[in-house]
Amino acid sequence: MSNKAIQLLDEAIAANHKRTFYAAYPEQPKAYAEDATQQGLSAFQNRLNQNFTELHTVEPEIWIGEEISPYLQTGLGIHYPSLPVATYILQAQQAWDAWAALPARNRAEVLVDSLERMKARFFDIAFATMHTTGQGFMMSFQASGPHAADRALEAISVGVEELERYPNEVTWVKPMGKFDLSIRKNFKPMPKGISLVIGCSTFPTWNTVPGLYASLITGNPVIVKPHPKSILPIAIVVAEIRNALKAAGQNPDLVQLAPDTLAAPVTKHLAEHPDVQMIDYTGGPGFGLYVEGLHKTCFTEKAGVNPVIVDSVQDVKAVQQNLAFSICLYSGQMCTAPQYIFVPASGVQSSDGVVSYDEFVAGLATAVKELVENPKAGPFTLGAIQNEQTIHRTKAAVTKYPHVALASIAVQHPEFPDARMYAPVVLTASAAEIEGNISELFGPCVLVVKTADTAESIAMAARAVAEHGAITCLAYTQDDATMVHIEQTMNRTFTPVSFNFTGAAFVNSHAAFSDFHVSGGNAAGNASFTNSDFINKRFVWVGNRFA
Amino acid sequence: MSNKAIQLLDEAIAANHKRTFYAAYPEQPKAYAEDATQQGLSAFQNRLNQNFTELHTVEPEIWIGEEISPYLQTGLGIHYPSLPVATYILQAQQAWDAWAALPARNRAEVLVDSLERMKARFFDIAFATMHTTGQGFMMSFQASGPHAADRALEAISVGVEELERYPNEVTWVKPMGKFDLSIRKNFKPMPKGISLVIGCSTFPTWNTVPGLYASLITGNPVIVKPHPKSILPIAIVVAEIRNALKAAGQNPDLVQLAPDTLAAPVTKHLAEHPDVQMIDYTGGPGFGLYVEGLHKTCFTEKAGVNPVIVDSVQDVKAVQQNLAFSICLYSGQMCTAPQYIFVPASGVQSSDGVVSYDEFVAGLATAVKELVENPKAGPFTLGAIQNEQTIHRTKAAVTKYPHVALASIAVQHPEFPDARMYAPVVLTASAAEIEGNISELFGPCVLVVKTADTAESIAMAARAVAEHGAITCLAYTQDDATMVHIEQTMNRTFTPVSFNFTGAAFVNSHAAFSDFHVSGGNAAGNASFTNSDFINKRFVWVGNRFA
Q: What is the predicted ipTM?
């Protein structure tokens, strides 16, 4: 292995266990070349209205593509090669054997090389992400670039560790009294087979690479089926993995891109193919249940109802500002964004005395308004809305919960006058109003629920999560016993809790090598980035014995 | 922790990784007290026609029991306390919290103590096993005693290692340029909840303790539902775990025994209870599919069609004798016993020249006959037939495949004139005859299939296993390329292969700390003793963050 690959791998394996801060890829754009932003932008612009030829596939049946920039609200005009399902399957099978025969560290070297190639494309990928997802530039860069690459490296490193868990070969000698019984044994991690990774429209790279790299490191061929509206970012990543495979003398068809359109979806044809053994899925719960119902090995991230429990605070303004940022970031289109904020009718204890329920809601609305209306921060934090449906859903929520503490503020993006913007609305409801009505509030919408007291807040949050799942829970309390109670109650629903986040700590962020993303234990999804199950379910230990 | 527990745990963790020979509990009866056999027999005899009061449960609704000794063919008359399902669930919930709060090593200490208590009952358990399963004394002692305890220790040790995989608490410090962002984090392995372990009639202890101890070490309460015809061996184990819990100040209801009868089965009521989160199951594939269909976390060992591929041998007699023993051991009532023996029509190459197909079959029949008729070995190797149905199934196989190379030989047990004995039959069939007809051949029956050549043998074995699963595959070949071909082909069906076993190496035996029992990758079952999945699926990592 190259020195670079060995170093990254060893660091990553250690980091997985330590779970203190570690990042292999710097998250600040300024850590990269000075002209990288301009170069990335040019690369993106030069690609518009062209065929995406970097995949170097066999001659495709058709070239397809229907991506639309949420910032420009015009089509990108980029077309990708589409092959028949049978061709993807056949080519995956053909590429499989040689890859499966490679030792784990040799596979890791090729995959780390692909990440280094991806690193050279971070800015290219950033603009591709911006103009497919609507994320602001900074999130596009970080989430689709270094944070995604870190998550990929995390999967590779957990993979290597699991694959090296047992010796390749041992001699087992059993004392039998008068003689010894000696048997040579080997232990082989056998890959399960073709892996289908289904991407989502909002995080086309970040949510795709963990499953993609986890399947690759464990020896499986992968077919990536991106969301038809967010293909370009992951197409670049797939192209670079194929380049790395080719450079290593491997068959690039080990990783294939299978794009489709909304009108002619290919996902079910791939998912139901008998040779597809594993499915990674990120997206809505309806299709997620379909995927889980196929009873193949599957890894899902669906949706949840992330609660916030406000009991008592030190500095109420700091809390409201922190919440406002988490609500506004990418206009609530993150799976980790707060949705239901439970506040007691009696108000919130603070170091300046009790803040009444109404004051708390008003202060939160003000904090959101101030952030949204801040011309230097607002539009860049909000980004654009990926899908028109998200705005319709938010409007439906307003119809359902008509107590509006803050209506959506019209925001103009300084660089993109046609951007599809929709600033978050802050709604309120009584505990009785939401009982039995809880469902995911995805997008620019948050609901403040007035509860009898914190005990009711906790009980409602736990009930909602037990039924609908959650990826995050945010809680504010200055009371030790309440903190323990919240932690224990929410942890029983397998939901992690972030306590008293203010300043630069945001509930939306999950750091690779430290925070598990999704616990895998509730309805929000069955997979977790990257615990050992995420790796071990992709292969089977088989031990042979030789007398 | 006690020194003894620390030592066993550390040795076991190391052994799991090394996979060379290790046994914590000696398998030879002579390694124990001189009068242990007599004491165990007396304990068993004194228990007949009594209530089993060692569980010290609350006053039961009824006392039930319908076990019948396959050796005596009379009822044991032992009755066990039966409680309502709601009581088991409630008591499990009540015992859960304190146990879940214990650190992994403290749980391990209690569980290792329970194994030491079980060790003191090995002979008692051996006679209980003999007179419920029909196993010979030696297998009853080894499988239900030391081998079971080793498998339990294996589960405990993999459990401790997985539970200690991440630190309890860390401080995560992210450099943010002008300041550091510092967040305290904890990582908690949260147990999933009530675990139901469903036992089988033939290996009531060995097949039950891995799931039982795996659920316990990961912090879950367990309800053991034994097979109604094989309760006593595991009842003694459960009683000793309850004693160990009580001695440690824990609530003994953390482990409960839920016996039932064939007429009034309780398994589905327990399995379908919404508070039961996990199910371990060993038994027939029909009920196994029902268990898997509940879509709870489940661990199954069902059935398979274990193939034998005979290509070429050194000493044909040694091979036939080895096969004969594996066929006769416990009259084929082992999940690891050979079922389908594929032999080429052109015969078997040996160091003494080619052995024709007919000669091979005749020699195998002779080897079985000689073993069965050996008064010092035959009856003790065969044991008795646990269930009359097993004999009916064997007779049905003879009707289906009427070419009988060896009919069942009448055997009288020297100690138990009423023992239900049925010596193995050796049947033959052409490849065409079995095509499309393959199903599990459980019990005293083996089918020799005449194939065109070894390539067809391998292909047929692989197809059978891909469809029906297998736990073992035995192969004889002197050709390196053929060996590689068999290994690769069968490993792709996630079936381990044992090559060229003669002498004291038998395909039926899977050693704890070295051989995975069931790969978990084919239809024979989804669980494997004891890989990390067997542990990790029983709890969920949840990480909390504190600003």
A: 0.97
